[in-house]
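User: I'll paste a sequence; please echo it back and then give the predicted structure.

Assistant: Echoing your sequence first, then the prediction.
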Amino acid sequence: MNTQLKKIVPHVGVLLSFFLLVLVYFYPSFEGKVLQQGDVSNWAGMVQEVAAYGQSSGWTNSMFSGMPTYHIGGYDSGGVNFIVWIGGESLINNVFQIRTIGNPILLLLITSYILFLCLGASWWLAALGAIATTFSSYNLIILVAGHWTKLWVLAYVPLLIAGIVLLFRQKWWMGFLTFSFGLASVIQHNHLQIAYYAAIFCAILYIGFLVEVLRKKEYKRLGITTGIFAGGVIFAILANSSALYLNYESGQTSMRGKAELTPLESAENAAPTISAVDGLDKDYVFAWSYGKAETLNLMIPNAKGGESGGSLGKDSHLYKELRAHGAQVGKEVRAQTYWGDKPFTSGPAYLGAVVCFLFLLALFIVPGRAKWWLLGASVFFIMLAWGRNLAWFNDWMYYHFPLYAKFRAVETALVITSFTFPFLAVLAIKELINTQIEKIKLTKSLYWSAGVTGGICLLMWLIPGAFFDFESVNYDGQITGQAPDWYYQALLADRKDLLASDAFRSLMYIALAAGLVFVYIQSKNRRKVLPYLAGGLIVLILCDLWTVDKRYLNDGNFMTAKKHTEQQFPKTVADEWILRDTSPSYRVLNLQGTWNESRTSYFHKSIGGYHAAKLGRYQDLIDRRLSQEENAIIRQLQSAKQQSDLEAVFANCPTLNMLNAKYIIYNTGQPPIVNPAANGNAWFVQSYRFVDTPDEEMAALQTLNPKTEAVFDRQFQLSITNYQLPATLPVDSAASIVMTAYFPNRVEYKSSSAQAALAIFSEVYYKNGWKAFIDGERVPISRANWILRALVVPAGEHEIKMVFDPDDMKFAGTMTTVFSGLLMLLLLIAIVVGLIRHPQS
């Protein structure tokens, strides 16, 4: 075997091992079974209308009465993104024909392996780092939750870091291409929060590099690196012009944008509201704040009880107490084992006990300043994850740091530690096997790192009650109010045992890893012992992480595709009844979880929905009008004895009526309630008026009768008065306007009136996209009644058409095609040239 082939074989072996790991972990997926994923099910409901349409559409009416599909899917902006065609995801799916739920995990293994090779690690050490990075529990937990795009973005972050490493090492050409491709792929997958945290991490790495080169006065190197770094950012941005433009545009109009209304002192609806700053409401941003003590989860997985509604076996205190009190129980019971600070959780962000031990060891033995920047980055992102639990820091970030207030679930910041901890762990092992440090110093460093991490675990095992009372301010009030004291005391004892048992588990892993390192340090022939160190650490890290991951993603999470489809969106009695209506368009109000469910959207055009970036004006409408009207209906349903009792309340729900809420689902097993007061798809009004501020516009809805009146912001005055319409219009009993065709991105009407009339359409207004045509001639669309579209229609009979066709996307799509194509071409040329000129590298 020649020398070049010998160098290739280990890498091929590693890649095959990665595939084998994914095959074993996700074997049910290879059998054709489907993973139950909450957010994927929600997404399926969101996108169903556009999917059934079968064509590209930038708009859907299936949620929140209508919204752009930019963050849902199903919209082709017109450009070709070659990163999608030729990138890692496409290679795995199409070239290697591996199409399973574990594909992003496989890609993350590969890209992490590349990162550690760029760091100068040997093949086995790079494989260790890739396993430590990929199998941190958060990555598997978000897969169960259905955060698909988040995991795909994380799979490209290692390439982003690898490009920076290459640039710092003056590998200009490959550094530029690797960084550009990594950043372009991160942006393309459109999870802006992960991209945001990754960008901050890159900025921290660059600042560390900046300090170092300035200290050494290497100004030329600084200039070249900075220029290439900036060029890579620009290139990646241009390669994603269409996606970024869509994000920018929707960001201006979504609930993540700046508030238009004076904030309410207290909102009746618990949904998040738009903040006084340019972003989300602060309480909403900090709802999922990691507790300070919960940070123990990085090293002890059940430090805070694991997941909400965790399982307790036959040996648990609660199981035994339930049996003793005559309860019928199975093999296990589910209870609120989680006692942390978040509203609920699917599991901990566990990085691994061995990884945490090696992370601390690196701080003792790795030379240079890079470790301190990595430590600083780790601490910084942990502080971000603490959210409201570190108010002095995160309040400042919320009000002053760019874009911080745009994102919720600040615990997500912990994803960066899944890179920084393995990064330093690999550096520790690399230094250990290449170091000239004296044995006594290495041994002392080992004692300190094992002593600190193992000591914490020892204390949590032996005397956990000295540090915690295992009570939860979020959950226990409800438990104590509904369950007997023996139940609660047993639950507290189980929470304590969960912490103690996992602390002992982590202690054993740390002891075994420290033992391997100790034997290696003390060995007279370290080269001979090295394979045992390498194999032992890989096995320990893999077993440590794998067994915790399997608590949250295992074979029990999979089911057959048929069963999954039947369970996901079963058609109810109410659905079947409504679907008999063949009218082109109407809306449905589901009183069960209105603002946080997408099941209704799968079958109908819903007043409610599920999306974290709905239109800001619609969220205002929910907070100020729709929630109150919904609650009024619910109250009336509880006391109504006959249909006439309901008709009165529907007449007093003008906002729901103008949104054409024709059907009300109150019980999915019963036919819906028909709302006789719904306005229909379009109508002519008899009067209109203008107001000067958004507050006045919203206030006008309190007394407005939308069937006969309309209110406009004054910015639309010219669009109305140019047609010389009187403020009070003559009544034309013969006038009509009827919807004749409906598609998600196109609606058509026929109108007839004896004189010019003002038509209001029960369609959500969106400036940058919708165009209106009367008899083929384009006319301006005005915004009426806070959220709806309006047109002045000339006298006579006319055909009206509205189409969703955003002009600015055409140029952005062209830019995406050109620069993504150029980037992929340069990357392929660099790989080919590199193989020809430097086959050994």
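The CA atoms of residues 509 and 540 lie 7 Å apart. The first helix runs from residue 3 to 25.
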